[in-house]
Design a protein that fits this description.
The protein is an alpha+beta fold and about 160 residues long. It has one domain (about 5-150): 2-Layer Sandwich (Alpha-D-Glucose-1,6-Bisphosphate, Chain A, domain 4), CATH 3.30.530. The chain has two helices and seven strands. Strands 1-7-6-5-4-3-2 form a seven-stranded antiparallel beta sheet, covered by helices on one side. The longest helix is centred in the C-terminal third of the chain and has 31 residues, at about 120-150.
Length: about 160
């Protein structure tokens, strides 16, 4: 069984409240995903802020335009500090994504920690080395660009 982890750190020149308000709203998810993924929320009547136990469903096209349905649950929330989403239905055997923020001089330090296991055992491990790991890095690099566009770049 192969498990993998992606850790992405990013400093944002904004207040803790501004960053929390942005990242804790499910409606901002499409803005931080690359356009080619065609990320669309399919849940009905979501609140403006995430809460523990919240289920979010969406459709996206992460690879070669093939549509994927995905359902995540927000399993942990600590206001203005972190939240965790876990896949309940989707392409991975395991998906556990921690979003941490912390106030620092001049802004906010943000850390994403994604622990995942591709499907299909040994074949999933090969797929991760060939494209899954690289694609996840590209997605989180895009998120950094989108957040820089929104809040400005760290100096």
């Amino acid at each position: 069984m192969a498990f993998f982890q992606l850790i992405k750190d990013h400093n944002i020149p904004a207040s803790l409240d501004e960053v929390w308000d942005y990242i804790s709203s499910p409606y901002n998810l499409p803005e931080i995903c690359p356009e080619y993924m065609d990320f669309r929320i399919t849940s009905n009547e979501l609140p403006d802020k995430m809460y523990q136990g919240m289920i979010i469903t969406y459709k996206l096209r992460p690879l070669m335009g093939i549509p994927v349905s995905w359902m995540t649950e927000i399993t942990h929330v600590e206001d203005r500090r972190f939240f965790v989403d876990e896949q309940r239905v989707g392409p991975y055997k395991l998906w556990h994504h921690q979003h941490h923020i912390q106030e620092i001089d001049g802004g906010v330090a943000m850390r994403d920690i994604v622990t995942y296991q591709p499907p299909m055992g040994f074949l999933g491990k090969i797929a991760n080395s060939l494209f899954i790991g690289r694609q996840l890095k590209e997605i989180f690099d895009y998120r950094e660009i989108a957040l820089n566009k929104r809040f400005g770049s760290w100096k």
